[in-house]
Automatic annotation (TrEMBL), chain A:
Subcellular location as annotated: Cell inner membrane
Superkingdom of source: Bacteria
Family the UniProt entry places it in: Belongs to the ABC transporter superfamily.
Parts of the chain that traverse the membrane: none
Membrane topology: Peripheral membrane protein
PANTHER family in alphabetical order: MALTODEXTRIN IMPORT ATP-BINDING PROTEIN MSMX, OSMOPROTECTIVE COMPOUNDS UPTAKE ATP-BINDING PROTEIN GGTA
Protein's name in the database: ABC transporter ATP-binding protein
Pfam families linked: ABC_tran
SUPFAM superfamilies in alphabetical order: MOP-like, P-loop containing nucleoside triphosphate hydrolases
Organism: Pararhizobium antarcticum
GO molecular function: ABC-type ferric iron transporter activity; ATP binding; ATP hydrolysis activity
Keywords for the protein's UniProt record, in alphabetical order: ATP-binding, Cell inner membrane, Cell membrane, Membrane, Nucleotide-binding, Transport
The keyword Transmembrane helix is assigned to this record: no
UniProtKB/TrEMBL annotation, chain B:
Lineage top rank: taxon: Bacteria
Family of this protein: Belongs to the binding-protein-dependent transport system permease family.
Name of the protein described by the UniProt record: ABC transporter permease
GO annotation terms (biological process): transmembrane transport
Species annotation: Pararhizobium antarcticum
Residue intervals of the ABC transmembrane type-1 domain: 66-277
InterPro entries from the UniProt entry: MetI-like, MetI-like_sf, Sugar_ABC_transporter
Keywords for the protein's UniProt record, in alphabetical order: Membrane, Transmembrane, Transmembrane helix, Transport
Chain ranges passing through the membrane: 12-36, 70-89, 96-115, 160-178, 208-225, 256-278
Gene Ontology cellular component terms for the protein in this record: plasma membrane
Subcellular location: Cell membrane
Topology relative to the membrane: Multi-pass membrane protein
């Protein structure tokens, strides 16, 4: 069990990590989700012991390891760049952590071949990393992390530099690879979709703060604040600032959206209404859906899906539609908002109510 | 479809062709021309064939000078390359120290060759030079004018002072290009300082080291100005390198034929050795 107790990291005048508490269980898969520069790598360095927290302490299995050097802890890390020893063969690269820890030759050979088999590297054991493709290089780095059998495995955007197909393949394998070891697995990513596919728990990170930590799917469906909701939305979350008054969310006294059943009990007043792009539609998804007039800004067709940017009620929104919708800009259309999935945030950014249970989110 | 010829392209490269012709091809051909002819003045030339080449290759003078060159370059490379790496490894990586160190390192490189020679010539003089006088005052026998060993030491120390910076700057650039994640990964592995150098820094510096090695080899093999200023090739012929020998032959004795043959041989030696070094070093790169 890894515990971060009230840790902060201040470098010069910049606060990289604001006071953070986090408990990660053994055998768990944890995703650090946040945009670039949100502090994912800083937090990982603190977890690993590469950096010492400015204040607070790090505990491992109840033991205070705050000042302990990284090589004395049981940590493995894989980076976005493909980091291997350039002059060593793949075999020697995979063997390197075990050589340093002084394992005997037979054990090393067995473990290297096992990891290579697992990572589909067996034919390349005698090559140097520079003579491998990017995917194979990263597999080598992952194999090195596996053989180390560390109790804390940190993966810092390990798939970001790989092409799409390899990414999908490795993403599927990764959790399985480390699941058996019983180690704590931390995976940093900027992509909400990746977090959802990995499952486990997610810590949403923003500007050096963990805005929410919990089961990945739970955070996606019920973010406790607007920052988390925005972090966990790709394409971006659609928002509009309105005033709740009785049965409607109004602007200038005109009702823009009706108040759905799950939010009926909320108090009147200013708020931010938010919903995911796939809850906006050109066709009526449900009889309770609200209708809004809008103008098309541009339609981007991405294979079997279309991202349609629209201007409605003075806000710029994105709509995710299945199929190809090649709509001319400036076309006036009627949009439907699935109000069952509306999220509402108060002026302090905290969530009010939450999206209704029982309706599963459609895709990522 | 008929292929269209664009003659404008020729027009575009013409200035470069003219420039290269005047700066390289024509002078080189003049030398080739001299090397196969004999003259007794009056602009009368006689065909000499390969006589001058045979003469040069059979003279002790040539082989002695070549040995001096090889020894000098060997010593220079054996000291400057490791020293340059060592200094580069210990240079600061960030902060105010970086520009300060870089400027200090670049300073010797900005000084013209003959000025460097003059500085050391004066520096080492026993009567007025800071180094020579101090050594004499300390009772250490040092005189580069009549002691062969002292002359060599002076030239070598001077070259190290002048050119190690180049190796340092190249290595520093090579080191700076290594992502921080490599060092982190090594730290997590618990790799020793030596292992980091041997398995990360050295392989990552390989390319720049090859360039540093070639540059330092070619330059030290062509050394002329500094020994000319400091020792004039002496004591005796102890520091008469091929370049100094060449100038003596060409301008001192005005033996144009042998001088031309010697310069062509000199040129081919540098070309051949550089090619061998390059091939050997890039081959070992492909193997590891």
């Amino acid at each position: 069990m890894l515990e971060l107790k009230n840790i902060t990291k201040v470098v010069g005048a910049d606060t990289h990590i604001h006071p953070t508490n986090l408990v990660l269980e053994r055998g768990s898969l944890n995703v650090l989700l946040g945009p670039t520069l949100s502090g994912k790598t800083s937090l990982m360095r603190l977890m690993a012991g590469l950096d010492k927290p400015t204040t607070g302490s790090v505990h491992f299995d109840g033991k205070d390891v705050t000042g302990m050097r990284v090589q004395d802890r049981s940590v493995a890390m894989v980076y976005q760049q493909f980091i291997n020893y350039p002059a060593m063969t793949v075999y020697e690269n995979i063997a390197s952590p075990m050589r340093i820890s002084g394992k005997d030759k037979a054990t090393i050979d067995r473990e290297v071949r096992k990891a290579a088999e697992l990572m589909k590297l067996t034919p390349f054991l005698e090559r140097t990393p520079l003579n491998l493709s990017g995917g194979q290089q990263q597999r080598t780095a992952l194999a090195r992390a596996i053989v180390k059998n560390a109790s804390l495995v940190l993966l810092d955007e390990p798939l970001a530099n790989l092409d799409y197909k390899l990414r999908e393949e490795l993403r599927e394998e990764l959790p399985k690879l480390f699941a058996a070891s019983g180690s704590i697995f931390v995976y940093a990513t900027t992509e909400p979709g990746e977090a959802l596919l990995l499952g486990g728990s997610t810590a949403a990170l923003n500007q050096g703060r963990i805005s929410q930590f919990g089961t990945t799917i739970d955070i996606y469906r019920r973010p406790t604040d607007l920052v988390t909701a925005r972090t966990f939305a790709d394409p971006p979350l659609n928002t509009i600032d309105l005033i709740k008054s009785g049965a409607g969310f109004q602007r200038d006294g005109v009702t823009v959206l009706p108040v759905p059943a799950h939010l009926a009990s909320m108090a009147d007043g200013p708020c931010t209404v938010a919903f995911h792009p796939h809850h906006l539609s050109l066709t009526r998804p449900h009889e309770t859906s609200a209708t809004l007039p809008a103008k098309i800004i541009i339609a981007e067709i991405a294979g079997s899906e279309s991202f349609i940017h629209v201007d409605s009620a003075g806000s710029r929104w994105v709509m995710l539609e299945h199929g190809i919708h090649d709509i001319e800009p400036d076309t006036a259309v009627e949009l439907f908002v699935d109000t069952r999935h509306l999220m509402v945030f108060g002026s302090d950014g905290r969530a009010i109510g939450g999206s209704a249970d029982g309706h599963s989110a459609r895709g990522a | 479809m008929q292929k269209t010829w664009n003659n404008k392209a020729w027009f575009m490269v013409l200035p470069v062709l003219v420039l290269v012709a005047f700066s390289a091809v024509i002078p080189l051909m003049t030398v080739v021309n001299y090397s196969v002819q004999d003259t007794f003045g009056n602009n009368a030339f006689f065909w000499a064939g390969t006589d001058w080449f045979t003469d040069v290759l059979q003279s002790d003078r040539f082989w002695d000078a070549l040995q001096r060159n090889l020894l000098f370059s060997g010593i220079i490379l054996a000291i400057e390359i490791p020293l340059g790496i060592l200094i580069a490894l210990n240079m600061p990586k960030k902060g105010l120290g970086v520009p300060v160190c870089l400027v200090l390192m670049a300073l010797p490189l900005l000084i013209p060759w003959n000025v460097v020679g003059t500085i050391w010539q004066v520096f080492g003089r026993v009567d007025i030079g800071l180094l020579g006088y101090t050594m004499a005052a300390l009772g250490i026998q040092y005189n580069y004018v009549n002691n062969v060993f002292d002359a060599w030491v002076t030239l070598i120390v001077m070259d190290i002072w002048h050119w190690t910076s180049l190796v340092v700057l190249l290595c520093y650039a090579g080191l700076a290009s290594i992502p921080d994640a490599y060092y982190q990964a090594a730290k997590i592995d618990g790799a020793s300082r030596w292992a980091v150098f041997r398995y990360i820094q050295l392989p990552k510096m390989k390319r720049v080291l090859l360039i540093a090695f070639l540059l330092r080899f070619m330059d030290s093999f062509m050394i002329y100005t500094e020994p000319f200023v400091i020792t004039g090739g002496g004591p005796g012929n102890a520091t008469t390198f091929l370049s100094i020998d060449l100038v003596k032959t060409a301008i001192g004795q005005f033996d144009l034929g042998p001088a031309a043959a010697l310069s062509l041989i000199y040129f081919l030696i540098i070309l051949l050795l550089s090619w061998i070094f390059y091939t050997v070093m890039t081959n070992s790169d492909a193997q590891t």
